Amino acid sequence: MEEILDRYERYSYAERRFLASNSESSSENWSLEYTKLKAKIDLLQRNHKHYLGEDLESLSLKDLQNLEQQLDSALKAIRSRKNQLMHESISELQKK
């Protein structure tokens, strides 16, 4: 019986140590993950403001040219989709 209790104490102590070390490592991982996600959110918010034409003072000429090119591409895609929907609508009306 004493041998069983000794084994129980050894294993429960080892398990507590393992869980404690896992907990510390897990909190470090969460902290690192939080930092990465926070940086991504900040970048996305900054880009969103730029797309809205806000906070452009900090951008260089090259950055502004890249932003203009991205907006031009987006505008072309929007106009293309709009024209497609208008043609479909006209076709539907002509069928009636």
TrEMBL record:
Parts forming coiled coils: 27-84
Domain K-box: 27-96
Keyword match Transmembrane helix: no
Keywords tagged on the record: Coiled coil
A GO term for molecular function: DNA-binding transcription factor activity
One of the record's GO cellular component terms: nucleus
Superkingdom field: Eukaryota
PANTHER family per record: SERUM RESPONSE FACTOR HOMOLOG
Protein name according to UniProt: Floral homeotic protein APETALA 1-like
Gene: LOC104238347
